[in-house]
Every structure is written in C-alpha cells, then in structure tokens.
Amino acid sequence: MSKLNVDQKTIFDLLSDRKADFLIPDYQRPYAWNDEQCQTLWDDIFLFSFPDNNYEAFDKNEEYFLGSIVTYKNEGSKSEVIDGQQRLTTLMLILRAFYDKFANMQDSNSKSTRARIEKCIWKTDEFDNADKNTLKIDSEVATDNDKDEFLELLRTGMVKQDSKSQYVLNYQFFQKKIDDFLQTFPAYFPYLPARILGNCILLPIEAESQDTALRIFSTLNDRGLPLSDADIFKAQFYKYYGSLGNKDEFISEWKKLEEITNSVFKPITGTPMDELFARYMYFLRAKEGNKSSTTEALRKFYERNKYQYLKQSHTIDELKALALFWESVSDQDKKRFSDNVLKKFFVLNYAPNGMWQHIVSVYFLQNRTEDGMLEDAKFCKFLDKITAFIFAYAITNPGVNALRTPVYDEMVNIVNGGEATFSKYKFNGIQARTAFENYVFTNQRGATRSMITWYAFTFPNQNLLGLNEIFHLEHIYSKKRQEMEGGLKSESNLDSLGNKVLLESSINIKASDYRFDDKKKIYSGEQRRGNYKDPSKISEIVDLIGFDEFEEKEVIDRNKKILDRFFEFLQTENLIA
Fold first, then answer.
1. Are 215 and 205 contacting, i.e. CB atoms less than 8 angstroms apart?
2. 119-123, 208-212, 248-252: which range is least confident on average?
3. What pTM does this model have?
4. Residue 201: which residues within 8 A CB-CB, separation 6 or more?
5. Cα(208)–Cα(210) distance, integer angstroms
6. Which of 136, 221, 348, 569 is 20 to 30 A (C-alpha) from 243?
7. Phi/psi class of residue 297: alpha, beta or left (left: φ > 0; alpha: ψ in -120 to 50)?
8. Three-state SS across 375-417?
9. Which of these, 312, 330, 334, lies nearest to 322 by C-alpha position?
10. What is the pLDDT of residues 522-577, one digit of tens each?
11. What is the dihedral of CA 528, 532, 534, 539, to 10 degrees?
C-alpha cells in the first residue's frame, strides 16, 4: 500500500522549512495563470485578511485554505511538484513583491515580516542566514521559455525591460495591488503579508513515488488540467536529448508535434499527443509480436524497461512521420494520396469504430518509403481489405473488443512483411448474411452510417467529398409520412439500409418530411432557394431522382441491392469462407 505524508501547514511553515526544496519538473506545463486567476487569489486573500476592509475584524484563529500541493521526493531529494505548480509559483511571486516593498521600511513589524519572507524564498544556512543565490524553488519545465526569467526575478527582483512573460506580468500585477494597498492602509501594511504567511493554509501531500503522486492528482483535481501521458513522455525525451546535448532541438520538434496533433486529432479522452502515442504504440506492440487482446494503458506500456522506446534516436522521427501522415489524411492531401485512396479514407472516416486508424498506422510505418510515401495500388488493396473486414465484423461480432483479436493478429503479419488477409477470420456467408438481414440499422448506430457511406462510394461517378462537410442519413420514405399514411406494411423497413441515403445536412433538413415527388425536387436543387440550389453531391441521388415512386417495394429492392453489393465486396476480398 502506498504511503503518504499529509500535514496541513501554513505558507510560512511549509516554505520556511530548511528542507524545503521544490522542483517544477520538465514534464509540467508552462506557467499559465493570468490576471483573472491572480485577481481571484488576491481578492480571496484580502477579504480573508481584512474582512469588510477592517484589519481589526480579523480572527487570528481563522485559517484560509488555498489548496493542496502534491509532490514526491525524486532521486535528487527534491520535492517534485505534480499538482499545485501554478498556485505555488504565484505565491512565490506575491511574496517576492512584498519583500521588495519592505526594503526601505524600518519599523519592527515590517522588518520582522521581511525577514520571514526571506526564509520562504531563499535557502538558509545553519544560522538562519539567507543564501541569496539559492532559491527554495527551481523549474526545469521543458517547454517554458521564460522559466529562467522567473528564477532570476525571484533571486534579484529585477525585471527585464519590455518583458511579456506571464511571470513578469503577474509580478507587476501584484506590485500594483500592493502599492494600492499601501496607499489605503499605510499603518497596517505588514498585517496583510503576515496573515498570508501565518493564516493561509496549504495541504502538502508527499507521495512515495511519481506514479502515486499522479494518481492522487487525478483524484483530487477537478479544475486544472491533469498531466497527460504525453507530458510524462516529454520528460523522458527531454532527459534523453539533454544527455546528448540536444535539448533545444528536441523542444523545437516537440512543439511542432503538438501543433500538428492539435490540428488533426480530437480524442474523446486524453490529449491529441496521447492519441499520437497510442497509434505509435500499436506499431511497437506488433514489432514485439504481441497479439494479446488485452491492451496495456498507454503510460504503462511506455514506462516498461525504464522507458526504453523513448530513449531511442529514431522514435521522434517515427512519431513525426506518423503525425505528418495523419495530417495529410485530415487535409485530404492530393499531392500525397491518389483520389482513389482519399475516397477510401472518407469511407473509413465513418467506420463503426476507430480500430482502422491503428492498423493503418502500423501499415504506414512498416511500408513507407524514405520520403514517407506509400505504393498506391498496394495501399488501396489494403484499405479495401480492412474496410470490408471491419465493416462486416461490426455486424457479425459487435463491439470493438471483439475486433482486437483479428486486427492485432494482422498487425503482426504486417510488420513481419506480410499482407493483411484475415485468412483465419473469414465469414460464414450464410450466417453473416443472416446477421445483416436481422440487424436494425437505426441512424444512431455507427454501423448504419458506415454501410451507407460505403455504398455511396460504390457508384463510379461519386466524387470525393470533404471531411469537413456535414452529411446526414436521409430516410427516403420519411418517418413522418409513415406516421400519417402508414404506407409501409412492415414498419421495420423504415430503418432498413434500403431506405437510407447519405445527404448533405442542408438538403436533408429541407427534405426530411416531404413526400417523394417533393423530395426529388429538393435533392436536385429545383425546389430550393438562396445559396442551396446546387444538386446533391451524392452520385446515387441522380438514380433516385429517376424513380417515379419510392414505396415499400423500392425500399426492399434497394436494401437487397446494397447487401448483395457488400457481400460481393466481401467475396472479392476473399473474406467469405
């Protein structure tokens, strides 16, 4: 069981302790508090210390809780700050601003308060004398270009001219607040910093390990952004490249990766950088020959063998190549991909789950040329294979967990130089067809959009559509019409694939409840106004407009046509046993 040291302390007790030695580690995010957060902290502290602007109304037995500071002792015996970095840094800036203001004050209260602040900012010797060159806080934040300015400000109180760093801006904010306070309460000036030091409380929580500290942070933190897995990985890279003397180059590359991933990935959980590391992880797992359907948590995977994968010179290059690949997919880059490949990516973008992204990442890293390209015909063949298998498997074996076994197996085949065949997981044609025919294709199910999008692109004249365009699933025979007329004998046909078509959202909204004759005019643009007169970009719409009517027979016939075409696709891909 993990051990914790938890002991509520005043700011003075915590910071004046001669053993106090805080380190904001390299994997933390840069200091980010702005005027709004500083104003809130100042207001909270002032209202506590001077209730109703009356210093005498203060209750000396009262305490004001400022939050927790989660740390662990690292190998250098420093208290590595996992949570509370922003708060701790800001308190140091406040104390430094007060310290400077006391410089020329000679009354006993002012001199005493200044001496107490001194013990909180600088380390002291055995005679309690401050060493003005050695601070009680240090920062190694890899992506914080202003950290040295912060440390110099604490040491000397000097501010670079025209500096725009957040440290300096906040320091100057507190200087102004202190000046205003001094003008208003000159006789009681020392009381405010004295009450901050003696009655404002922090809860230092010292864990026995970094992992324990991070877990505590995730549990306690409900406002700030928890450290992501990628933040931890960044620290390991930083140490590795630091040992090679290449820290600056690494920081530059990391920032580029963050820019790319932020524009490309929109994960439901975790950060965009976490998503990049997850996709890369599947490549590494495959290279290990790991086919287990149990996937380790991201951090657990990379921390094995002391983060071995993050201490290899080619890792950043592979991550960058992978990020650029997915950026090209997101941008529908026609210089990198053929129109045929981009159409297949559009269809996969509506896959019933995200497993395709992992196997495509493995394929890319294994088969890319030196300039990051893929052989077009071979790649098209691969995309067809995974589309056919993943789309069918979503119906016959619902749930992404079921898909792991065959996909992980094929990932290993790919890195061993083979092709993805899914030869061990072929479908029984009769059973699969029955599963499709019994499946209820409601619009809420991901597999419905998958199948209708795939079918749209089986039409030879279907042009590439934009990933940023919004398409809905249109009920050709509308639900409203069924409610009013009851024209379908079997209401289940409303949600059959035969009654669904991909359609631009703007057209779908206008056409949704109309009878078929009116829908055809809306589909074609004949019965629309303003900027929405263009016909639908969905090629099959031309065929649908040619129908005189679209009743139950047409729904059933079209449903059979879609399923026949899909099972021909499975047969072509050699996925029927």
1. no
2. 208-212
3. 0.76
4. 8, 9, 10, 11, 63, 64, 65, 66
5. 7
6. 136
7. beta
8. CHHHHHHHHHHHHHHHHHHHHHCCCHHHHHHHHHHHHHHHHCC
9. 330
10. 888 776 545 567 788 999 998 998 998 999 999 999 999 999 999 999 999 999 99
11. -90
**Tokens encoding 111:** 């001199």
Residues 6+ apart with CB under 8 A from 515: 478, 481
The identity of residue 9, as a single letter, is K
- Where on the phi/psi map is residue 491: left (φ > 0), alpha (ψ -120 to 50), or beta? alpha
Joined together, the tokens standing for residue 290 give 């790991």
| Element containing residue 501 per DSSP (H, E) | strand 500-504
> What is the rounded average pLDDT of the residues 300-328?
94
Q: Which two tokens stand for residue 193?
A: 């910093």
C-beta of residue 130 within 8 angstroms of C-beta of residue 119: yes
Compute the CA torsion angle 422, 299, 218, 252 (nearest 10 deg).
-110
Surface-to-core class of residue 450, CB atoms within 10 Å of its CB (0-12 exposed, 13-18 middle, 19+ buried) = buried
Residues forming beta bridges with residue 135, ordered by sequence position: 122
> What does each C-alpha distance from 308 to 117, 252, 356 come to in angstroms?
44, 22, 27
Give the tens place of pLDDT for each residue, 373-424: 999 999 999 999 999 999 999 999 987 788 999 999 999 999 999 999 999 9
Q: Looking up tokens 């929580």, which residue turns up?
A: 205
- The residue among 26, 81, 73 whose CA lies nearest residue 237 is 26
111-122: b (≥16 Cβ within 10 Å) or e? eebbebbbbbbb
Best-predicted range by mean pLDDT (111-125, 155-169, 318-332, 541-555): 318-332
Q: Tell me, what's the pLDDT at 223?
A: 45
Burial class (CB in 10 A: 0-12, 13-18, 19+), 297: exposed
Q: Are 545 and 523 in contact (CB under 8 A)?
A: yes
Q: Per the structure block, which two tokens stand in for 254? A: 């990391």
